[in-house]
Backbone:
């Protein structure tokens, strides 16, 4: 494979869409989730997001990055107004319609209806879950941090509860999300299934890590 | 599949390692990268990180989350002191030794040596790249943000340059990282190869997205 070096100066000269494709591909594989929200008039919203990141286990917190200038703004407004949202894993059966939620629907249109998802409510939680998803997380806003450099917003949330198939919980607490057919993404529009290579043992300086059976 | 609901109260009662396994698994698939740094005495460091996230394409910025209380602290210290670091994709050939970098080596030990990676330097850039990696990114620290809720640190960096195989750059700028054998992870220790499902067309409200050929 012949290597190519792309400098900052090269990047600056690229056409906008080409640069967005390239830079969005370079961070590695991404989690792809649907964020469900509901505004104060009970209008729901659903947005595909590729930036959910683990922030901590105690308290259990996840974060994601929202761009204020895109379709995600309805999501951001609803989270700010109501404090609650859901994170729903995407499986291969709902991948095409999940991607379709990224279209610029009007504020009055719910992506649940436009993209044919079923609302699900659990435990009196305000925000809607995606019934067709297998792993669903109820989230409460903790805080948002404005990223001054490009006006994105880092949304920090606390996990209220998790709904998932009992069979994918392993004995040590690991969740086998591949067994739930959760997919992953790369770039802006490329999707992938996964094939497990296995789990590696806890690494110690004086011993080689080994594959767990 | 029988569903199970795990509440915040259930989570709080879990044994620490079990909870860490569970919460680390729930956000979806993760990018797995090696962060390369060098301190002011020319001692290098290499750390596996699963939290790199795309922050913006113009300027081209990536971020990651560092925990101050783990092996990653040498990485964090070096980034603070020198401002420069590298992000290197992990392929299946170097997966086991990449995981091994998470062992608690002493500050005087370089994971490059302990885990048998080859230093690579490019374009007079201060921080070392991993020669065995196929996709390598030179980064400059922009800013760090302390996450008060759990003392993690959100590290924002700007891309200085990228080195990658020319053959995986598609005509529209998309980088096919699967072709470079980049792997992904889930939870704390589970690794996966990917199988492309394809790319979906830009979604519009009045048309169904379709698979690109």
Residues:
């Amino acid at each position: 494979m012949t290597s190519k070096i792309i400098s900052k100066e090269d990047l600056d000269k690229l056409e906008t869409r080409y640069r967005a494709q390239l830079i969005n591909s370079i961070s590695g594989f991404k989690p792809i989730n649907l964020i469900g929200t509901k505004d104060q008039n009970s209008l729901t919203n659903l947005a595909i997001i590729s930036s959910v990141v683990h922030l901590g286990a105690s308290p259990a917190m996840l974060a994601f990055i929202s761009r204020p200038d895109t379709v995600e703004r309805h999501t951001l407004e609803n989270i700010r107004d109501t404090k609650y949202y859901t994170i729903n894993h995407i499986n291969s059966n709902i991948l095409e319609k999940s991607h379709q939620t990224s279209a610029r629907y009007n504020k009055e249109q719910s992506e649940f209806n436009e993209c044919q998802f079923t609302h699900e409510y659990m435990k009196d939680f305000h925000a809607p879950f995606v019934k067709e998803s297998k792993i669903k997380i109820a989230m409460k806003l903790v805080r948002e941090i404005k990223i001054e450099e490009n006006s994105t917003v880092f949304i920090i949330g606390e996990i209220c509860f998790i709904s998932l198939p009992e069979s994918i919980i392993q004995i040590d607490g690991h969740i086998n999300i591949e067994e739930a057919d959760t997919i992953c993404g790369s770039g802006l529009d490329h999707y992938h299934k996964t094939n497990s290579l296995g789990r590696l043992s806890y690494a110690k300086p004086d011993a080689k890590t080994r594959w767990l059976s």
In short: The first helix of chain A runs from residue 8 to 13. Residues 34 and 161 of chain A are 16 Å apart (CA to CA). The first strand of chain A starts at residue 3 and ends at 7. Helices of chain A lie at 8-13, 16-25, 72-82, 95-100, 111-114.
